Amino acid sequence: MSRPRIRVAQAGIRGVPANFGGSETAVQEIGRRLAAAGDEVVVYCRRHKSRGHSTEYLGMRRVVLPSIPTFHLDTISHSLLASLDLLIRDRADVVHFHGMGNALCLPLFRLSRKKVVITIDGPDWERPKWGKWAKRVLKLSALLAVRSADHVIIDNHPSIDYFAREFGFGRGTYIPYGADRDKPSGDAHVRSLGLEPAGYVLFVGALVPDKGPDLLLDAYRRVRTEMPLVVVGDSPFAAGYRRALHDAAGRDPRVRMLGYVYDEPYRELLAHAYAYAHPLRSDGTSPALLQAMGYGTCIVVNSVPEALSAVGDAALPFALNDVRDLAAKLQEVIDDAELAGDLRRRALARAEAEYDWDRVAAQHRDVYERVLSAAA
What we know:
Layout: E1 7-11, H1 22-36, E2 40-46, E3 56-57, E4 60-65, H2 74-89, E5 94-98, E6 115-120, H3 132-148, E7 151-154, H4 157-167, E8 172-174, H5 188-192, E9 201-204, H6 213-220, E10 229-232, H7 239-250, E11 255-259, H8 263-271, E12 275-278, H9 287-294, E13 298-302, H10 305-311, E14 316-318, H11 323-335, H12 337-354, H13 357-375
Parallel strand pairs: 1-2, 1-5, 2-4, 5-6, 6-7, 7-8, 9-10, 9-12, 10-11, 12-13, 13-14
Antiparallel strand pairs: 3-4
Helix pairs in contact: 1-13, 6-11, 9-12, 11-12
């Protein structure tokens, strides 16, 4: 018996190809698998983040719409347009939003027959990057998510517990991101930067306080090593914070600020790092962290509950937001090659056991089938 075809729209992200962040990578990896299996996948893309005008990518249909490209309005303005397009043009039966703030769009679908799924990764209003007004909006979004969505997906166990405790909400499904385990064979890009494979420490993330790059730069100046610290990522919005980071990096000749790096060069940098530093102050399940595990990288991680839940025993934790302990743990893995090797083996084993994209895609499709069956 053939399975029914599902029409699903993915919204609330910047778009595909996935050159921007974890949610985009998840949509790309899940969507390409669903499309290859015969489902119809539509991805809403932001015009100012879209390179080229292709209407299809890896079997998924791209719908490019404008947005208001400011820190607070970029996502929600685009998601509102996507919602209106879906209601008018009927491109999908299941609408899947990614990110808490997009819950503001959910009431628009109450009078339609479309089923709405939303992925959230925790209490976003606790993140340092948001001001007072944004925190209030995100709390409202959380309430709308648990009351209005047909199903909620949460990518980490601590956040499932949090929403059950704070909102009395028990309908969340845990589905993590996946991790690619096919390491790139080459190292040409790494060497073109004057770096040696297994000869640098890597950080990947937006240059915003949530991600903790300031913690890492402060800690690294205390680490006794000639090994470079490579920082991949940027931010179009947090100009003052970004400037302070670059000033700090300029005082340490070992620090390399690379900005955004995509595609194969990014994969090379991640695959060939000696160690991966994860100093995030606030987290869901970071796709970059999972990918570091997938490539069998030695990981030093902040003791944020979501991150600790993701890594299990496959990383070396440092005390929560403690600069001195982060420096000590980095020093430990740099000085102890045997410890670093053990952490690499544990990371790869955990990625193989927990973070498989094929399984993640199947779990998403199961959710879509369930919400459609409930409406039948």
